[in-house]
């Protein structure tokens, strides 16, 4: 599993969030299956050359979100799937970050929705996508 993880310290996105998103994608994409044991926080931190607290933060968020589970005295495992197959669950961390950034910039909900709609249409036009 370690070889599937990568972080980019210069991306501007916090490393814990990059790690969080990657693990969710691995679960949704089937590269990590239910009950599969994750490497320890220390192993992940050493492999990625990041602070163990950063990895611990990402793992704890995934536990809190129901993607992973921890049992006393046992390794961290992929939690049984609940609603994890939906795209909504996959996008939840990015949507939360987008809403938080919009609020920090002083945008209201209507402005953010308009921006998303305009971006959706622009992207569809550039790609010739009929889904716009």
TrEMBL record:
<keyword id="KW-0238">DNA-binding</keyword>
<dbReference type="Pfam" id="PF00392">
    <property type="entry name" value="GntR"/>
</dbReference>
<protein>
    <submittedName>
        <fullName>GntR family transcriptional regulator</fullName>
    </submittedName>
</protein>
<dbReference type="GO" id="GO:0003700">
    <property type="term" value="F:DNA-binding transcription factor activity"/>
</dbReference>
<dbReference type="InterPro" id="IPR000524">
    <property type="entry name" value="Tscrpt_reg_HTH_GntR"/>
</dbReference>
<dbReference type="InterPro" id="IPR036390">
    <property type="entry name" value="WH_DNA-bd_sf"/>
</dbReference>
<dbReference type="GO" id="GO:0003677">
    <property type="term" value="F:DNA binding"/>
</dbReference>
<keyword id="KW-0804">Transcription</keyword>
<keyword id="KW-0805">Transcription regulation</keyword>
<dbReference type="InterPro" id="IPR036388">
    <property type="entry name" value="WH-like_DNA-bd_sf"/>
</dbReference>
<dbReference type="InterPro" id="IPR012318">
    <property type="entry name" value="HTH_CRP"/>
</dbReference>
<feature type="domain" description="HTH gntR-type">
    <location>
        <begin position="13"/>
        <end position="81"/>
    </location>
</feature>
């Amino acid at each position: 599993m370690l070889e599937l993880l990568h972080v980019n310290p210069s991306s501007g996105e916090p490393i814990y969030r990059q790690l969080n998103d990657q693990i969710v994608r691995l679960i949704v994409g089937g590269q990590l299956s239910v009950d599969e044991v994750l490497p320890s926080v220390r192993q992940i931190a050493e492999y990625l050359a990041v602070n163990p607290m950063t990895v611990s933060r990402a793992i704890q968020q995934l536990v809190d979100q129901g993607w992973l589970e921890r049992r006393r005295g046992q390794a961290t495992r992929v939690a049984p799937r609940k609603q994890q197959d939906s795209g909504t669950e996959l996008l939840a961390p990015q949507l939360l970050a987008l809403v938080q950034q919009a609020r920090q910039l002083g945008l209201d909900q209507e402005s953010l929705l308009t921006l998303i709609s305009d971006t959706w249409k622009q992207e569809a036009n550039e790609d010739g996508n009929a889904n716009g």
